[in-house]
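Example 3.
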Amino acid sequence: MTASRTARERVRAELTREITDIARRQLAIEGAGGLSLRAVAREMGMVSSAIYRYFPSRDDLLTALIIDGYNALGAAVEEADKAGPPGDFAGRWLAVCHAVRDWALAHPHEYTLLYGSPVPGYQAPEETIEARLRDVAVFGRIVSQAYEAGALTPPDLAPPAPAALSGDADNLRQIMPGVPDDLIFRGLTAWTGLYGWVNFEVFGQFENTLEERRDGFEQSVRTLGALLGLRPV
Amino acid sequence: MTASRTARERVRAELTREITDIARRQLAIEGAGGLSLRAVAREMGMVSSAIYRYFPSRDDLLTALIIDGYNALGAAVEEADKAGPPGDFAGRWLAVCHAVRDWALAHPHEYTLLYGSPVPGYQAPEETIEARLRDVAVFGRIVSQAYEAGALTPPDLAPPAPAALSGDADNLRQIMPGVPDDLIFRGLTAWTGLYGWVNFEVFGQFENTLEERRDGFEQSVRTLGALLGLRPV
DNA sequence: ATTCGTCAAGAGCGGTGCTCTCGTTTCTTC
DNA sequence: GAAGAAACGAGAGCACCGCTCTTGACGAAT
């Protein structure tokens, strides 16, 4: 390819970006169901069919938004993880949990796109899985590093993971290298617990039930962290 | 009202029921987004406008389905709770968790309607909240009864709930009567953890990540139960 | 027997995703 | 620099959607 792109390529990239920007704004207002190609086109002063020059279908536009969303959430989580001292594993866990919650509450519809019910008829393509792993990789890294540092003192309260799960544990060890089976599944429980809470909060399940949600959340993820043996320094 | 309903009332009730049945079937196939009044009407051999004699809007039909869903899930959970010995609290917790998961996997779209991302533009009316509490009431009852029976030996691993949460704890005590603050929030964590897992499984988040999902689920809810101090008898 | 409420049907409104064609513009190649 | 190829925006149109309004038929109560 040539070093300097042609004018056409530049305007194409710019229009593509403008489409996703407008779409993201509409998504933030109306949610995934309200995302309309025609409305995007209208706002751009284009005719609806012109959008199809840039995105072959509504689903492809959705895919672009999903990838952007995973990257935005992943970046927020990574940044929160870097903020504190690397040896304070409990603090990193807490910071990262808050980063997920804060991002989700700030971008509820984008979060819904990532972790909510799948959009009917939409099938996430391969391209999304790379970005999808950014946030979970951070969690895995914390657990893994904490374990290697000998900072985990997990309480013994549940029966050990059955042998049937060892294959899955091997898979999950790609995310939490070096961690023994039992801790792998405690990590999984903490992870699903975290997102379970955030889901409930974003989807309005705590309405009229819980007021001090930030405090409640922190209490919950502290408990989940203690499950892993993450004790505050 | 008269003891015997008129023929008109009977046929009306029957048609209403037929509409919800067809709608539920379409929901099961296509999901909430694919639920179309016109398609329901087509399947009934009616014209679309006739449906509006029975449901003033699509949202009202959705509401009917949601209430039915809460009741179906609630009934399944209640039945699972009654199946075992009342004194085996750990067993009841496990059975009830499996009941939630089994029902959700058997009716993924209905479950999505209840615990997934909110349907865009739809606002759940007051009538749904009664049915909505059926399943959670069962969980609360188990925790409450186990505590009163002295069957809970919660491990001390997390800091106690902060004072700011005592108001919320009072609210939640309606569901878990007699339970102290700390256990209230452990119960909340276990509850969100359970639904967090089921959400991930129903929404496809475990695809290519976890194979033995039933075993993994059981391991997870066992751990969450241990958090509450629920030890197998 | 007549009135009155209920009902299904039909036409129609504004919206959607998407396809196809058509004339124009831009880039590439000779 | 001219010719061909590729990309592009506009427009019309298809089938679908939720929803509204009107019309005519039917059944129940007076």
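Chain A touches chain B through 55 residues (CB under 8 Å). Residues 58-83 of chain A form the longest helix (26 residues).
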